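F.,

This is the one I mentioned.
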């Protein structure tokens, strides 16, 4: 199985949840960018917004995914690159997420990276 490195930038945490500023994943393997984007949109449904693919750039091998409808206080943006790198941010404010959903997010993204 491919090695996945996870880097997080967390603004605050308590017993129930956290404020996630940024999450980055990098895999030693290289997956199928189109399948990864499709799986993220289908499976990551618990961030308080529906996600959709905004742009696919075949030249730079990148996909931009964002909240379908931005909330009053911001939107979620995911950038996939080369089938082995991902960054997730909520702009401009941090994403409030329960610890259970955060763990699920990590599991889901790691699984998606094996596609």
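My design for it:
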């Amino acid at each position: 199985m491919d090695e996945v490195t996870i880097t997080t930038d967390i603004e605050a945490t308590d017993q129930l949840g956290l404020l996630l500023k940024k999450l980055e994943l990098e895999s030693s393997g290289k997956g199928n960018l189109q399948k990864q984007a499709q799986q993220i949109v289908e499976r990551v449904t618990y961030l308080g917004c529906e996600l959709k693919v905004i742009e696919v750039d075949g030249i730079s091998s990148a996909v931009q995914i964002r909240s379908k409808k931005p909330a009053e206080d911001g939107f979620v943006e995911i950038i996939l690159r080369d089938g082995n790198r991902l960054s997730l941010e909520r702009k401009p404010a941090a994403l409030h997420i329960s610890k259970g959903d955060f763990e699920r997010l990590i599991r889901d993204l790691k699984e998606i990276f094996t596609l």
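The longest strand covers residues 17-27.

Talk soon.
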